[in-house]
Amino acid sequence: MSESIKLFGWDGVRWDGEYQMTYFWDMMDINGKLIKDKYKTLDDANLQILRQVVERYKKEWPQFVWGYNNEMNLDLWKDNVPKLLEYKLKTGGSVMWESPRCANETINPNHTFAEYSANTAKMADFVRERGGYFMQFPAGFGWVGTGHDRAYKAIIPIVCGSTNYGNSAGILDSMGQYNRFIARYSALWWGDNVRSLKNPEDFISVESESEIWWKDYVNIRPSGNGTDIIINLLNAPVNREIANDAKGAMPPVLKDVKIILKDVPEIEKAWLLTPEPVMKSETISVSGNEIVVPELRIWSVVVIRVKGKL
């Protein structure tokens, strides 16, 4: 692999499953010593295996990114996160969560769009807060299904701070310039200094004629002496469940969506960005502490720069 990095200049590599021991009571190292006598737990043994590899390459390629296919269960772990995963994240690893690929099955915990969104946001925050990069498999094979489902299955991970495995859009070009938009403004979701704004409803309210999803999709990042508030607005999906044979029209286009800020520093400037029907970025006027988005098809982003820290 060292020679390959030298030849091709790779920025990183992703294991679909890095080498791990799945049991160890009767396994021995190369010196014939029982693994169970050397390490207290299987987690400790696997941590040492991975650390040897990562540290070996770190000296020559300190920015090299290691990627992993890692199943995660935050509710099960609670405060007992595996040491192996903690190490992957604190060394800037990219972790892929594959469970949503089967979200079209009714027994999958991500089967509804609401579950898919909430779980994705929780996973992305967990990874980012520990120094890692999050990637997930779009729900129910993201490139399969109606235009409605393909759009929401791909957009939701992005607005939560995740990259998508595979072609992020799998979205019909006639609906919007999604791939181009996601790449052009990637720093809004994946920037190293971007973090979720906790309890955004304490600072922001959104008013519209029908439901908009946004509370799990608000980020902040420093900007000079101020702060950028990044609000992703998602017109709520029509379909409740994720299913590859789902039927259903696109949600109605919403007009004059109002964003109201409260208890935040003075607003300096605001921008409106959208990939629909073509990619567009423009400044948007601010009236006091209110901003009106003229139209919301599926996804738009409002970036508000305030003076001071949030």
Please tell me the overall pLDDT.
90
Radius of gyration in whole Å, from Cα? 22 Å
Shape: globular
Number of strands: 15
Portion in helices = 25-40%
SSE order: HEHHEHHEHEHEHHEEEEEEEEEE
Strand content: 25-35%
Treating each run of at least 4 consecutive H or I residues as one helix, how many helices?
A: 9
Q: Kindly report the oligomeric state of this protein.
A: single chain
N/C terminus separation = 44 Å
What structural category do the secondary elements indicate?
alpha/beta
The biggest beta sheet, please?
Answer: 7 strands, antiparallel
Q: Low-confidence runs (pLDDT<50, min 5 residues)?
A: none
Question: What secondary-structure arrangement, pairings included, does this model have?
Answer:
Blueprint: H1 2-8, E1 12-15, H2 35-38, H3 42-58, E2 65-69, H4 74-77, H5 83-90, E3 94-97, H6 113-129, E4 133-136, H7 147-160, E5 163-164, H8 178-184, H9 187-190, E6 195-196, E7 204-207, E8 212-213, E9 218-223, E10 226-235, E11 254-261, E12 267-274, E13 280-283, E14 290-296, E15 299-307
Parallel strand pairs: 1-2, 2-3, 3-4, 4-5
Antiparallel strand pairs: 6-9, 7-11, 8-10, 9-10, 10-15, 11-14, 12-13, 12-15
